């Protein structure tokens, strides 16, 4: 059963300019493993983090680093949640995450489904 759905779109040029203007955002928004990725990959991961929050109902107290895009053994993107995000997901009965990521034409898009 679907518990929540989230989608987010990021303008990659605007996102890149924001990261350049405010370098400390990398640490606030991304896990250590994510921080060294290219801007396009960061933009789509940011969109995924926002989509996770939306799928959880946008509860207060979530941190962007509590949602991470990881890859499985064949390179498929997956969502890993920790901290408050994991607590909320557990309370909602989320057992499985589905994620689709894309970036093209200057935009990054993430679609996330939380399933019980």
Automatic annotation (TrEMBL):
Its cofactor is Mg(2+). It is found in: Cytoplasm. Residues 4-94 form the 4'-phosphopantetheinyl transferase domain. Keywords: Cytoplasm, Fatty acid biosynthesis, Fatty acid metabolism, Lipid biosynthesis, Lipid metabolism, Magnesium, Metal-binding, Transferase. Transmembrane segments: none annotated. InterPro entries: 4-PPantetheinyl_Trfase_dom, 4-PPantetheinyl_Trfase_dom_sf, ACPS, Ppantetheine-prot_Trfase_dom. The keyword Iron does not apply. Its EC number is 2.7.8.7. It comes from the Bacteria. It catalyses: apo-[ACP] + CoA = holo-[ACP] + adenosine 3',5'-bisphosphate + H(+). GO terms for molecular function: holo-[acyl-carrier-protein] synthase activity. Belongs to the P-Pant transferase superfamily. AcpS family. HAMAP family: AcpS (MF_00101). Transfers the 4'-phosphopantetheine moiety from coenzyme A to a Ser of acyl-carrier-protein. This is Holo-[acyl-carrier-protein] synthase. It comes from Microtetraspora glauca. The gene is acpS.
């Amino acid at each position: 059963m679907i518990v929540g759905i989230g989608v987010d779109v990021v303008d990659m040029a605007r996102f890149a300019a924001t990261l350049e203007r405010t370098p400390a955002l990398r640490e606030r928004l991304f896990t250590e493993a994510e921080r060294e990725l290219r801007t396009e990959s960061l933009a789509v991961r940011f969109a995924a983090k926002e989509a996770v929050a939306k799928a959880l109902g946008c509860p207060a107290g979530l941190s962007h680093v509590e949602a991470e895009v990881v890859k499985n053994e064949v390179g498929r993107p997956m969502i890993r949640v920790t901290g408050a995000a994991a607590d909320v997901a557990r309370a909602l009965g989320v057992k499985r995450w589905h994620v689709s990521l894309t970036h093209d034409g200057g935009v990054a898009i993430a679609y996330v489904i939380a399933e019980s």
